[in-house]
Amino acid sequence: MSFAAPLVLAGLLALPLIVWLLRAMPPQPVRKVFGGMYFLDALSTPKMQPIRTPLLILILRILAFSALILGLAGPRLGQPVDQQTGDVTIVVGNGWDAAQHWDETLTAARDAIAKSSGNIRLLTTTDGTLSAPYSPRAAEAALKAINTNAALDDWQAVAEALPADNSRLVLIPGGVINPQTSLTALPAQPSVYLSETSVVALGQPRLTGDAISVTLVRSRTDGPSQHSVRALSQDGRTVSREDVTFEAGEGERDVVFRLPLALRNEVARLSIDGVRSAGATALLGTSARRTLAGIVSTGSETLREGGFYIERALAPSAAIIEGDVASLIGDEPGLMILDDVGTLRPQDRRALTNFVEQGGILLRFSGPNMLTAGTGRNDPLLPAPLLGGERALGGALTWAEPQRVASIDQESPLAGITLRETISVRRQVLTEPGSIADVWASLADETPLITAARRGRGMVVLIHVSAVPTWSDLPVSGLFAAVMQRLARLAETDLNAETAEAGSPLPAQKHLTGRGRLVDPPADAQAFVPGEDPPQPGLYGEGASEIAVNAFTGEGLDALTPGALPRGSRLLQTATAGESDWSAWLVAAGLILLIIDAVISMGSFSFSRTGASASAASLAALLILLPDPVQAQLRPPLPDQAEEATLTLRFAYVKTGDRSIDRVSQAGLFGLTREATRRSALEPGAPQGVDPDRDELSVYALLYWPIRAGQQPPSDAALQRLEDFMNGGGMLIIDTADGGSPARSQVLRNVLGRLDAPPLEPLREDHVLLFSFYALDDLPGRNSGGDVWVETRGALDQRRDGVPSLIVSGRDWASAWAVDENGIPLRPAGPGGEIRREYAWRAGINMAMVAITGNYKADQADVQSMLDALGIDER
Amino acid sequence: MNTVSPRVQLERQAAEAAARMPDLMAAAQHAAEVVTAGRHPRRKPGRSDTFWQFRDYAVGDPVSAIDWRQSARLAQRLLVRQTEWEQPQTILLWCGGGEDFDFGGDGRPPKRLRGQVIALALAILALRGGERTGLWGGMEPPRSGNQSVHRIADGLLRHDIPLSDGFPTEGATVVFISDFHAPTDDLAVAFEKVRQARGRGIAIVVEDPAEATFPFNGSTRFEGANGQARKVFGQAGAIRDDYLALRQAHHDALRDVVRTADEAVIFHQTDHPITPLLLSLVQQLEGGRR
After folding, report:
1. Partner residue facing B100 (CB), from A27, A37, A606
2. From CA A657, how far away is CA B50, in angstroms rounded?
């Protein structure tokens, strides 16, 4: 035990004096208002007797003052900080396991920096680069620049990269041990900050039957924990969510997403809620989409082309590629669709036959071409030989009525599909009588509509009408879509089998960062070569053959235990690193005792009001005298500001540190507040400036963030808070004030590159921002150049409140809004003058309205179509 | 605003107190006579609106006094209509006191407010009976009519005229309301002035029950209601007997002020209801006239 300010302990000498003072103090009379003072004035006053302070109170006060004095002296328990001399090498784990508790890692690293006095070298574990020797200050800066990688700690590389000099070694490992490497190669006796946080990861996603399943693994199994895993689509929408609860001792659990095929195909990645780490992210490439359908048709652009109808029907349940037979076969689809293809070149015919034999499904539509081509007697690519010529029903020269589709064979793969509509067939092709083929669906006169035959491991399916609605109503019926989806499911391909097959190298499309974000890869990124060791996690290959490489493959997730550390390691766990400071507790205890004393004194006891006021006075004096470090602990920055903001609706801006920008932001929001109050029912309080590093943001509805060139980039913690703010339904307006000129948006790019921002799109004409209060054509500010980017509609639909969480633009709104207390504009309004300012205000009020009311007004965009749907003639 | 609000409050309280009177009067026939009879007929011709008698015209009567309608019924006689002489009683009110008068114990109204309520309730009753009512030492002469209620309420709140400053009008009944925590000579002098003006004085001593019981013990610092007077007693219980003796002596001195049968000193405590007091006051006024 030691003291930060031992001199304060001399105050203990004053205790006897306090005791004496308390005892000598005469009792305080009870104050009574009385109406008979006329008589009392005539009475004489007897001498007053001091009454002794009761023993209990005396003890209480002595305890209180002792606790205060001891607390102020700053007692510290535990191991003292060892300020070590000499150079130090700090090995910072920056794998995806460290990314899950990156703040902790940074804290540990800062702690290590603070404790060393010599030169500091930083060494990252995943890429094994050793930095130059830094001063502590430079080391702090370099620490901020460290990025996490989608890999695990590579101790082998670390051991090789360590400097030869005998500097001290501090390890801050990520928390999970990489099964490939061990720490034994490291020099002995390092100091180690071992994280206590459990690391969670998602294994390789698997496709089982009708579900996507993935294994959720955690590194520490000692307590129960709850997680939820989200299945996300390409554009970041949540498709599904599953909650997982680990019991104590349980290390892994399968998470199964049972989804309809259409939804399952939308899933592009799985991730664990609230954990941003490559290991907690499982990517599914396009090839994971269950069915790949290749369509050979004349086109899919117009209503007169069969491909159009086939694509519409298949789109929800399969990935579609178009092309000729040869190129399609190369992509290894599960389903091949030939729309009215008559003559096949011999090599195509061979390829198709091969395809079907190996388990592919060939779907053919009839049509004029097929008839003109004619068919051989035993064409393997048809379920049965066809009769020449089509059968026309209900034409000008026939007396047969158009036939109805009558039945679906419930023994066939189409079982379960029911006919709910009348589908008339005007023309059809017929198979030769007596041919053997499964009839899946037939017409009222028992002529077949869909026939199929097995060929090898695959099958050939023929639809006896064309894919355009000339021959029949089938292509525009619900039955058509149902049949196509059923076929797509039949043609499901196996994800893992496909990745294992050898093929040409696939170029890197996206890389996964340590925090689980997809970024563009560098130009020299390694390609994915099937059959070889997978390169860096990310997405490889294009289109249908897109393959995902995940950071965690699901081969055991072992927490780094002290046993695995090098010999003689000294553990400095971050949770209890350093010594604990008891002063806050003691001072708090002293204060509580004084409060108890005051309450007793003010109660029914007839003694001592002076005692209480004396305690209060001494307390006030003590608080003023508190030495700085203690004060910092006693009074952490109370979120007064946030409290105020919760009481009244307020706009807020992000403080940039540049006074002139902050002043304009403040004045701008003040002007906006003022105009909103004047014009609308929205009456916010005075705007506040916030520091996303420290302040609570969730209490604001609208946050204005000016970003200028040369600005200090925000820290990760700040970005995290901003993301939480956006996810919590807040609206963040990023204003670069550069009028959209790309040359100056580098800072913005830096920020957005690191921010987990929702997908953006240019402001559409019918966006709710343009009519939430004023009807506007644009959201003008002082500049009008460039687009206003807002969260995409697709992403917006996923939000509960429909508030666009992010608006990015260079319009310099704050300058146009800014007024001083008297309402006099601070800055010129730009071209157009005051009218422009007026429009800027309108834009601001619109944005504020959307921030407050969400999509409340958005319905109005659809008024016309709703009226149309209701059939109300708007004359 | 500042003066109106308490005045309105006072008026309302007094009106409520006075409004309870008619019920009471139904039970107490005696008191009811006073209030309902209102004016005080002198049973001889005089100035009023009440018909008294017809008499023959005599030389010197104004022509306008002739009742032509009655005269036309008789041959050769002119009748003059005479009204009865009614003289309203004059009532003067005074309510005032020192710092002690502002005291009100736990939850009870301050004595001053109680006194003002009593004064105004009396004024309302008197004015309803047609009496002329005014303030002791007030600038304006006593008047009758309901408008005077507001004037009196205003005066009660605004003026704090020392007891010795007022002068009675001839034959007026003067009601003094206070706690009389002051030398009793002041009251004696005031009663004497009233007596000399052929009027009569009634004093109402308003007290708080705490003053009668002195329920204090232990070390106590007594303060006046406005915090001006203060005095500390180490042991309040010890001075209770002395205090009560002093108070008794003061009360005796107050009672000694009364000289004639129609004068009175009435003691009232703020925890008692007002209505019985008003009833007895009305009886006092009634009794004095006879």
Report:
1. A37
2. 94
Residues of B in contact with A29 (CB under 8 A): 218-221, 232-234
Q: How far is B223 from chain A (nearest CA, A)?
A: 5
What type of residue is A792? Answer: T
For residue A225, what pLDDT is reported?
Answer: 85
Instruction: Give the per-residue pLDDT at B33.
Output: 40
CA separation for the pair A353, A360 (Å, rounded): 9
Mean pLDDT across A797-801:
65
Spell out which residues of chain B touch residue A33, defining contact as CB-CB under 8 Å. 103, 222-225
Q: What residues of chain A lie within 8 A of the CB of B180, using their CB?
A: none
d(C-alpha A100, C-alpha A123), whole Å: 19
pLDDT confidence bin for A604, thresholds 50/70/90? very low
CB spacing of B219 vs A41 below 8 angstroms: no
Tokens of A646: 């919760």
Q: Does B280 contact chain A (CB < 8 Å)?
A: no
Rounded CA separation A64/A18 (Å): 11
B266 touches chain A (CB under 8 A): no
Q: How far apart are CA A162 and CA B246, in angstroms?
A: 100
CB contact under 8 A, A48 and B234: yes
Residue A780: partners with Cβ closer than 8 Å, 6 or more residues away: A811, A816, A836, A839, A840, A843
pLDDT single digits (tens) A144-155? 878 888 887 778
Residues composing chain A: 875
Least Cα distance to A548 among A559, A538, A558, A556 occurs for A538
Closest residue, chain B, to A33 (C-alpha): B223
Among A30, A40, A47, A606, which would you mutate to test the B interface (most chain B Cβ atoms within 10 Å of its Cβ)?
A40
Q: Answer yes or no: is pLDDT of B75 > 70.
A: yes
Question: What residue type is assigned to position B211 of the chain?
Answer: E
What residues of A are in contact with residue B247 (Cβ under 8 Å)? 36, 39
Question: Does residue B234 sit at the A interface (CB-CB below 8 Å)?
Answer: yes
What is residue A687's DSSP assignment? -
By the 8 A CB rule, do B117 and B13 touch?
yes
Q: Calculate ∠ Cα B130-B132-B138, nearest 5°.
A: 150
pLDDT at A401 over 70: yes
Structure tokens at A144: 């901020």
How does pLDDT run across A208-218, given as a tens digit for each residue?
A: 656 788 888 88
Q: Work out the pLDDT band at A739, boundaries 50, 70, 90.
A: confident
Give the integer Cα–Cα distance in Å for A49 and B219.
9
Amino acid of residue A403: Q
Q: Do B221 and A31 touch (CB under 8 A)?
A: yes
Q: Could you tell me if B105 lies within 8 Å of chain A, comparing CB atoms?
A: yes
Only one residue has tokens 């209990």, namely: A56
Looking at the partner chain, which of B182, B210, B222 has a beta carbon nearest the beta carbon of A40?
B222
Say if CB A252 and CB A552 are below 8 A apart: no
Does B229 contact A at CB distance below 8 Å? yes
Residues in chain B: 290
Q: Is the pLDDT at B87 greater than 70, yes or no?
A: no
Q: Does B182 contact chain A (CB < 8 Å)?
A: yes
Q: Is the dihedral of CA A838, A842, A847, A851 positive or negative?
A: positive
Q: What is the pLDDT of residue A875?
A: 52
B231–A37: do the CB atoms touch at under 8 Å? yes
Supply the pLDDT for residue A414. Answer: 83
Strands A702-706 and A168-172: unpaired
| pLDDT tens digits along B179-208 | 888 888 888 888 888 888 888 889 999 999
Confidence label for A44 from pLDDT (cuts 50, 70 and 90): confident
What is the value of ipTM here, to two decimals?
A: 0.73
* Helices (H), ranges, A331-467: 346-357, 368-373
